Amino acid sequence: MENKANDRIERYIYQVGRYLPKKNRADIEQEIRTLIGDMLEERCGGREAQQKDIDIVLIELGDPRTLAAKYTEKGGRYLIGPAIYPRYIFVLKIVGLCVAGGVTIAMIVQSFINTEVPPLSHYANWIGTLLSALMGMFTWITLLFALIENRENSRIGQALGKGYDEVERELAGDTGGAFLDSLPEVPQKKAEISRSDAIFGICFSAVFLVLFVVAPQWMAVYLPDGAGGVTLIPLFNLDTLRSLVLPVLLCVALGMVRDVARLSAGQHSLRLALVTIACDLPALFLVIYIVTRKDLFNADLMSQITHHLPEAAGAMETVGTVLGILAPILIALFVFSFVLDMATSLYKGIKYN
Amino acid sequence: MPNEKEIVEGLVSELRRGTVVLSVLSQLGDKEYGYSLVQLLAQKGMAVEANTLYPLLRRLEGQGLLRSEWDTDEAKPRKYYSRTPLGDSVYAALKKEWKTAVDSVAGLTKE
């Protein structure tokens, strides 16, 4: 009896120890061993402890894992703590929106292309893809924020986030009000930046990126193939496009950085204008570089369209003329929009600074 | 939605949580081992469960408020805890805050 009873105590202690850091495991185990002895002694008075007494004492101490957790918990150990939780939720929402939008668009396009599959399977496919995409997004963002939370041990975190301890001290008021200096200003009504614009920008960039990387062939002219389906005639030369992945990625990333900066700043300022210019200017040069690549567009676009749609031959000539001067037109458009963006941002930045 | 009983229980445990440290510090001017402290606190109406108290003692030791030593002379090896000088002054400060809080809350809840 005694052996079996002791066995259970030792097993309990061992189980607690398994979840303790090695450093003070032996010490805590010894402490718990004595504690159990003390508790049994008080329970039994002089008589020998029975199995039932031991069980009651162990139940009182609770689940070994919970007990171990109580030993290891330091103030504010969170996966994602209150300091960064609001930002976490915010990022989840935006990225979730992008992912859901991107997947939905992709699925709609696919349902046009692939008309042989019954609509029901498109729905099933859509729900399945949506779920797995959202799960993946959730995992990665959570991981990233957990890293930020745990910034004591991580450089990325140190660069990005404010630690829980810091916030806790601020809440307790013993930073002497240092946080008062970092409170953001209440924006003037006119200086405010539309959040939806920035969010739309981010979502658009994300969807474009997915389209570009995963399915560049979908950027195409869609023609009926006569059999109820659709033929895709790619707008771009896919080989050239593949060789441009890096500049395109960089370009989209710059746009996202700008939009995220706008989102977090919330209002126009000189600093934000500088960030905008620092993003827009290189992005503009990248765009020009990309647009001026020869063989960027599908050289056979016209002949392929005419092949599938002979009656459009006349119109194609006009289109062909336009395409011949497409690059300069695009450059002009991009220069105009980028310069406009930089100028607006600079003007408002100076005005409301 | 939690019912009234759950709400009260939750708030009471929040109230108690802050007072446990003060209670523990108060009893450790002289050295005590963990379980004697459990009994001592229970006798004086401030029952704290062993599985809460033991980790707490260790945490307070980690913060430098308590020191500990193993006494292996007795039949059972025991770890004794007592306040450090830092623990003394933290205890004094906490006690003062507690008195102020008690007076203020007493005033507020007189009616």
Task: Please mark out the parts of chain B with pLDDT under 50 across 5 or more consecutive residues, or reply none.
Answer: none
Beta content of chain B? 5-15%
Spell out the helices and strands of chain B N to C. HEHHEEH
What share of residues of chain A is helical? over 70%
Strand order of the largest sheet of chain A: 1-2
If helices are DSSP runs of H or I spanning 4 or more residues, what is the number of helices of chain B? Answer: 4
What separation lies between the terminal Cα atoms of chain B? 30 Å
- Give the DSSP E fraction of chain A (strand runs of 2 or more residues): under 5%
Question: Order of helices and strands of chain A, N to C?
Answer: HHHHHHHHHEEHHHHHH
> Which overall shape of chain B is indicated by the principal axes computed on the Cα atoms?
globular
Reported for the largest beta sheet of chain A, the result is: 2 strands, antiparallel
Q: What would you call the structural class of chain A? A: mainly alpha
Q: Tags for this entry?
A:
heterodimer; A: 353 residues; 15 helices; 3% strand; B: 111 residues; alpha+beta; three-stranded antiparallel β-sheet; globular
Describe how the helices and strands are arranged.
The complex is a heterodimer of chains A (353) and B (111).
Chain A: H1 2-18, H2 25-44, H3 51-61, H4 64-72, H5 85-113, H6 119-149, H7 155-160, H8 164-172, H9 195-214, E1 220-224, E2 230-234, H10 238-243, H11 245-265, H12 270-291, H13 301-308, H14 313-324, H15 326-352
Antiparallel strand pairs in A: 1-2
Helix pairs in contact in A: 1-2, 1-4, 2-3, 5-6, 5-9, 9-11, 11-12, 12-15
Chain B: H1 4-26, E1 32-33, H2 34-43, H3 50-62, E2 66-71, E3 78-83, H4 85-108
Antiparallel strand pairs in B: 1-3, 2-3
